[in-house]
Amino acid sequence: MSKNSKPAFYTPKAFLILDNKVFPVRPTTTTIGRRLSNHLVLNDIRVSRLHAQIKVLDNQYYIYDLNSTGGTYLNGDRVFEAPLNSGDILSLAGFPLTFVFETDSESFPSGARTYQNKFSSEDDTKTLI
Length: 129
Known about the structure:
Blueprint: E1 14-18, E2 21-25, E3 29-33, E4 40-41, E5 52-57, E6 60-65, E7 72-74, E8 77-78, E9 81-83, E10 89-92, E11 95-101, E12 113-114, E13 127-128
Parallel strand pairs: 2-12, 3-4, 4-13
Antiparallel strand pairs: 1-2, 1-11, 3-5, 5-6, 6-9, 7-8, 7-10, 10-11
């Protein structure tokens, strides 16, 4: 295998960017919402308790709306399920989140702070915004 090739099971690391803050996306499923049990907590009444989730299936990231009240938008269009590409803009009840792959780190805003979560099956650290 060459230095630049990746195995078939490789899942690129992905991040969500909000207000100059960079948040890692879990390599399997990331839940987003107002409830404290979510992986990414958006503490705003406009955000549903369990608003959306990002899943990885066959090395592709997908966004799923979880019957939220405020809706989930991808690049301005309301979606219930859609594949994600680096640079896509998600909007959850007015919160703009930019989805990027690690390889596209030049998309990170200058001066952005990265919030590292420990993501393992035993330790699901939450990020509260």
